[in-house]
Structure to design on (284 residues):
């Protein structure tokens, strides 16, 4: 019988209580499998763990989504990550609470004219005979609650409208997550293949996307976090804070100011950057 060549990817999180506290939940609370609890876990994850690519863009570090590494990065250093990391951390929490869940591989479609290689990881959760797509690792604009894959028609999800279009494989996979925009048009968000993927299958796509010079993550800094009142975002060198319908913007011009925003506004523990792609050398 074959054994996984990288057993570290199948290990549990070192301390699930600390992981629950990281997403703002009582470590002694009851989060057993139910749709309501799944919504709670997903919402708390989205509002506590930022979507970010600092290791790729600023720190030039290898992206490792093994649970022990995610625990150090997400819990001990209060960081975030991109889809392979952030959806992996979320799925590890779900598994610890007894959820029947598995990882899927997807192809991003939104804003694209051509089909790119598979480059997204998401999660499906089965509860009471229904299957739910749960994605906390897209960055922005995706469904912020579980999407029922068995439901027909448009689903209203925290103010966003989504539906699921089913296919018979091919370049469009087995199903596409469709977003319905305010102007009445539709946008294909991404397509996924329903076959459960082992974590080993994400190692090479993660390596490719995090190191390819043409990858968006190599081209600019991205840090995003949903808040109770809106969001906070670093888009390249622009810091944006959304409160209700108001947006406050600030151009980041120094490494020191970037460090202040990451540590004070995003509450991260990060090394001080004395040099980056965007700003001149600076000691502080």
């Amino acid at each position: 019988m074959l054994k996984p060549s990288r057993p570290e990817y199948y290990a549990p999180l070192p301390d699930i209580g600390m992981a629950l506290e990281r997403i703002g939940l009582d470590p002694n609370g009851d989060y057993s499998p139910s749709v309501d609890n799944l919504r709670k876990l997903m919402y708390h994850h989205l509002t506590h763990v930022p979507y970010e690519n600092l290791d790729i863009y600023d720190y030039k570090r290898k992206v490792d989504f093994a649970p022990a590494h995610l625990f150090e990065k997400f819990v001990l250093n209060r960081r975030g990550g991109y889809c392979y990391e952030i959806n992996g951390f979320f799925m590890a929490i779900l598994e610890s609470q007894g959820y029947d869940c598995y990882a899927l591989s997807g192809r991003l479609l939104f804003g694209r004219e051509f089909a790119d290689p598979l480059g997204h990881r998401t999660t499906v959760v089965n509860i009471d005979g229904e299957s739910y797509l749960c994605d906390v690792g897209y960055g922005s604009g995706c469904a912020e609650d579980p999407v029922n894959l068995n439901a027909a028609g448009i689903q209203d999800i925290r103010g966003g409208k989504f539906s699921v279009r089913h296919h018979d494989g091919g370049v469009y996979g087995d199903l596409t997550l469709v977003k319905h925009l305010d102007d009445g048009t539709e946008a294909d968000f991404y397509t996924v293949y329903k076959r459960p993927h082992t974590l080993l299958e994400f190692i090479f796509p993660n390596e490719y996307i995090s190191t390819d010079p043409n990858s968006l993550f190599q081209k600019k800094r991205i840090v995003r976090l949903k808040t109770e009142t809106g969001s906070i975002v670093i888009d390249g060198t622009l810091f944006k804070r959304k409160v209700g319908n108001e947006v406050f913007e600030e151009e980041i011009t120094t490494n020191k100011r970037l460090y202040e925003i990451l540590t004070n506004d995003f509450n991260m523990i990060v090394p001080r950057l004395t040099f980056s792609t965007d700003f001149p050398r600076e000691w502080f």
User: Anything to note?
Assistant: The chain has two domains: 17-211, 227-265. The radius of gyration is 19 Å.
